[in-house]
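User: Some background: our group keeps a shared notebook of sequences we're curious about, and every so often someone picks one and asks for a predicted structure to add to the entry. Today it's my turn. The entry only has the sequence so far, pasted here. Could you supply the structure so I can complete it?
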Amino acid sequence: MAFSDLREYLNYMRKNGKLIEVDSEVSTDLEIAEISRKATYSHLYPLIFSRVKEFPKWKVVSNVFYSLEGVYDVLQTRDLESISKSFLEGFSDMPVTLLDKVKSLRDVLKLGKFTPRAKKPSFAKSDLKLTSVPAIKTWPKDAGRFFTFSLTITKDPDTGVHNVSVYRIQIIDDERAIIHWQAFKRGSMTAMRYKEKGITKVPVAIVNGVDPAVAFTAASPVPAGLDKYLFAGIMRGEGVGVTELDNGIMVPSSAETVFEGYVNTDELMDEGPFGDHLGYYTPKDLFPVFHLTKSYSREDPYFHVTSVGKPPLEDAWIGKGVERIFLPFAKMVIPELVDMNLPEYGVFTGVGIFSVKKYYPGQAKRAMMAIWGLGQLSLLKFVIVVDSDVDVHDLNEVLFALSTRVDPQRDVMIVNNVLTDSLDFSTPSPPLGSKIGIDATRKFKEETGREWPEEVTSDPDVQKKAEEIISKLKSRYLPS
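Assistant: Of course. Here's the predicted structure to add to the notebook entry:
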């Protein structure tokens, strides 16, 4: 089942007793953010704030991705891998990349039910200003109020492919805001392509309040070159309804609010500081300015926000959802890959643990290089590769593999002066830094110069008898 809009999702959650109405009057200045963070840490259900100081006509929604259960609610399945598996199984052969796969006419037809479709908008033209919405200040030293879960939508000037992403946006005044798209992000890359054509005014739409599956997709690392609306259709099981604005940008037709305008690539302003998902303030830096030209709104609109900080908050659970959904795509490119874990406290781009079926010497390091070539995984600072019998989600098993299968001089690879997360303040010259890969697999003779030792295993008959005796002892001496 796909939700038609944010309101249908909220009604579904309310009907199932999984929506929390906050009756207290709250402020957009720190209070909504603090309550939302504490709710996420406690795995409370999504929140609706209906009494927001200075914004009486608005309802603020937060904590949609309150845990991995929240991702299941939004995508209406607990088997997240099945979303991408069922999609990929529809193709007759295995592509080199998904982009290669969708080039044939047959495959374009296969994608038909997932592609966006024109639909009459639920919103209407309004006199809404950027300052009119209940955007929030999340930390005391933030530069001001920010859009934290609004979608920034751009369109490639050559291919017409739409990018739908979540970037933080700092409000400057009624008609100006600063969009924090980092140099390697798709919005920034699209702007550069406009600039190469001599176009400095890049058409942009800032959208808030959509079906959370679309918001989830916007926050996901969809492979470059593929339309995020298409991926949102895959997540939903059906295409997204869209409406074309006067500036040529397609926006979700059921959005609560839409700001139409442009980004001037020649106009930069200091953005920040902002307390981000690493748990530290990002210092001021120059980013492009968005100029509002038209606005649209639904009646009695909802405004969707999130509050970031030290994990695990909503971005961590989105990351865990992405991990499961994108695993089949990763396996398509790296066939020996068995499983992966992007731990919540590894802040998604910090630490990645991957298990592989190892068939030949040097394979683990080859897998590391392939992992660093996969979209958002390219930002991983620590990549740990283990054998297929290691449960990547059991950190004790991973630690055992690190302790018994790694010689630091032989099995640790450091790569210098490569692209990292621009928000990572620990790097000497962001966005350039270093990465480390650790081969924690068993080694072939070619890798060590000698045979790998045999691991201890129990005699099957003795093991069976011991288990029977231990089971009786447990039932007798341990509390039930």
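Suggested note for the entry: Confidence is low (pLDDT under 50) at residues 94-99, 101-106. The first helix runs from residue 6 to 15.
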